[in-house]
Amino acid sequence: MTTYTSPFTGQTINPAQVSYESLTISGSVTLQWPINGNTTNVVAGIIEVAATTVGSALVLPAATEVSVGTAFIVRNVGTAGNYSVTIQNYSGGTIISVPVAPTTATVNTYYIYLTNNDTLNGTWSTIAMGIGASAASASALAGSGLLAINTTLNENTPLTTFSSAYQFLNNDRAQLYVWTGGAGTATLPNVSTVGAGWFVIVKNDGTGILTVSTGSSAVIDAPAVNTTSIQVQIANSSVFVTDGTNWFTYALAQTNVFTYTQYIQPVGSIVSSPFTVTAANAKSVIQQYSGVLGLNLTVLLPPTVQLYSLRNITTGSYSLTFGIAGSAGTTLVVPQNQTIIAISDGTNLYNANSATTSFIAALSLGNGTAANPSLSFQSDATTGLFLAASGQLGFAVSGSQAGALTGTGLQLPVGINAGAF
Asked: Is there a domain that residue 138 lies in?
C-alpha cells in the first residue's frame, strides 16, 4: 500500500491539496489529484457542484496515486432545474449519489475519504453531513412544570394526593396537590426560600375544609384580604403564587356548591345512630327528616362552613340531634314539628336564632301531645307544655301528662307525692 508519511512523526499524511473548487457539470467529468493536475477539475478539499443534465458524475482519479486518509467534501448546490451528481471511483463504480436538495432523511453534502489504496478504484467511505437538526437535550432542560417529549419541552402539572397536614417544599413548584382527607391544614413554604414566581395548585376533594396558611409573617392577598390563612372549601381549588414577599391567589373558587334544594330523609329505616349525611345529600341547604323515630338519632353533617334549615317532622318518643362529622363540637337538638336555622363552622353547629336582643311578638305552636309536647327542652324533648284540650294547658313530664291548667283551676291527676304538690 502506497502512503505518504511525515518525516517527523512517521504517520500518514495527505499530499498537497486544493482547498475549494466550484464546478458546473453536464455529463461525466474526470477529476485529477492536485499534485498531478494541470486543469481546474481537481479533487479539492471542498467541491461545490451543480449538474445541468441527468446522469452527471464526478469520476475520481486512481486511488493508488494518493495516501489512505485522503478526503474531500462534496456538496450539490444545484437548485430547481438541476440534478443529482454521482461520485464514482476510477472505473466508474458508484461511491455515493448526492441529491440536489436536503430533506430530513437525505442530505446534499457528504464527507468522502479513502481507506484502502491497493487498487486503482480504492476503497472509499462516506459520512452524511448536516442530516437532521442540532438541538439541545429536552430532558436535560426540563425543570419543574416542564416535561420533555421527544425534543420539545411541554407544560406539565404533576398530581399528588394528600390527606394529612403538609408543609409545601421548593420541589413542589407547579404541582397540583389534591386534598382527600377531612378538615386539615397545608402550609406554604417560606417566600424567601422559594423566591418570586413559585406557585402551587391546591384542590379540595376531601370531606372537610382545607386551611392553607403561610406559616410566617407573609400574608395572602394583601391589601384587600391581608390574611395569613385561607380556607379551600370542599370541591373548590386555588393557585397560590408568591412575589417573593407575600402570597396571592388566583382562580380561587367562590361559587357555593351547596344549592337551595330540599333533602328529605325518612328515619324509619335508620336502625343505628349516628347517621352520616353524604356530601351529595348535604348539598341541599334545606334538610327535612320525617317518619317514626325508633331511637334517639344523631345526624352528622359534613365538616364545612354552611347554613342549614333543619326541620324535624318525625313522630315517636325519641330525640333528633344534629352535629358535625368527625367533631366533638356543639350539637343541636331539633324538637318535633320545629325548624331551626343552623350555622356550621366546620366543627360546631349553632342555632342562628340565639341572639339575646331579639324578641317575638307572637309565637304559635303546634298542639303537641304529652309524649311530644309543643314546648320542650333541648336535653329532654318529652317534658314541657302542650294543648291538652281546647282551653286547657297541659303539663308533660317524661312523656306523660302530669297536669292541666283549665278555666276552673289546676288539675293534677298524678296527685300529691310525699306531701308536696
From this structure: no
What pLDDT score was predicted for residue 2? 56
User: What's the rounded Cα separation, in Å, for the pair 324 and 331?
Assistant: 8
pLDDT tens figures, 272-309: 999 999 887 888 889 999 999 999 999 999 998 889 99
Is the dihedral angle over the CA atoms 10, 11, 14, 19 positive or is it negative? negative
Domain count, the chain: 4
Task: For residue 134, tell me if it sits in a domain.
Answer: no
pLDDT digits (tens, 9 = 90+) for 234-265: 889 999 999 999 999 998 876 454 456 788 89
CATH number at residue 294: 2.60.120
Q: Are residues 220 and 271 in the same domain?
A: no
Instruction: Say which residue, 257 or 120, is predicted with more confidence.
Output: 120
For residue 28, give every residue at least 6 positions away whose Cβ sits within 8 Å of its Cβ, in sequence order, or none: 55, 56, 57, 58, 59, 88, 92
3-state SS class at 413: coil
Beta bridge mates, 211: 185, 231
> Rounded to whole angstroms, how far apart are CA atoms 99 and 185?
67
**Residue pointed to by grid coordinates 437535550:** 137
CA dihedral over 19, 24, 28, 30, signed as positive or negative: negative
The H or E element spanning position 48 is: strand 46-51
Q: Which residues contact 62 (CB under 8 A, 6 or more apart)?
A: 90, 120, 122
Asked if residue 243 and residue 180 are part of one domain, the reply reads: yes
Distance from C-alpha of 170 to C-alpha of 200, rounded to nearest angstrom: 10
Give the residue carrying C-alpha cell 382545607: 210
User: 67 by DSSP, 3-state: which?
Assistant: coil
What is the sign of the dihedral through the CA atoms of 307, 313, 314 and 320? positive
Q: Starting from the edge strand earliest in sequence, which strands make up the sheet with 123-128, in order?
A: 20-25, 46-51, 71-76, 109-116, 123-128
* Cα–Cα distance for residue pair 234/256, rounded to 1 Å: 10
Q: Write out the residue range of the structural domain in which residue 387 sits.
A: 364-421
